[in-house]
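Recall that a protein's primary structure is simply its ordered list of amino acids. Everything else, from secondary elements to tertiary packing, is in principle encoded there. The following example makes that idea concrete.
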Amino acid sequence: MRKIAPQDLVKALTAGFGDFMENPSHVLFLSLIYPIVGLLLAFAAAKQNMAPLLLALSTGFALVGPLAALGLYELSRRRELGLSSTWRDALGVIRSPSLAAIFLLSLMLVALFVSWLLTAGGLMYLFHPTTSGSLPDVATLLTTHAGWRFLAVGTAVGFVYALVALTISVVSLPLLLDRNVGVGLAVSTSIRAVLANPLTMALWGLIVALALAAGSLLLFVGLAVVMPVLGHVTWRLYRLTVAA
């Protein structure tokens, strides 16, 4: 495990953006699924009068982002080795010797995401039991003291969820893709990486949160660029953090 400084994030960001620019059209093709899924989920939430979930959806991408970026890690890995890195090569993930462990960790992240959505909805009804869940009703609630308390508590709880997701996945999924290890070792390695580099990892978490927030504006369209860049940078951060 290496100690990394905040300035190493600049190296990871630069290298990750270089990976993105190597084949931006291919990466964008793969990444169209992010805004499409976001829009479908948002539409379903609004249609079913579950507006409280809209904000949770936009922030919840941070919980499943590492999972969604698996193909991008593979592209960065191949580019680092001097191999071809087209969108078809991203499917090389399925040939990983740790595929079963990747699947198990993926289930953990999805469970965390679903738990966050349920928690966010529960908090809304806790602070305003009579809400209909419609967009106008929720918009009105957010102008009240109860609405502000909901936002404050929701932000605090969401921070805990995001911290858990960051801690268990910041290097675990890239490690599983790179080496034949179990999910327990991968998660423990990720936890040790965060504990060894608390400031740098906190800054990385902040960068991810701000980037995802910006990408979720304008109907999630920005996620088509934000998600792949973050995915490539995550691989580069893994390579800087975990010794070969």
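The chain has a mean pLDDT of 83. Residues 6-241 form one domain.
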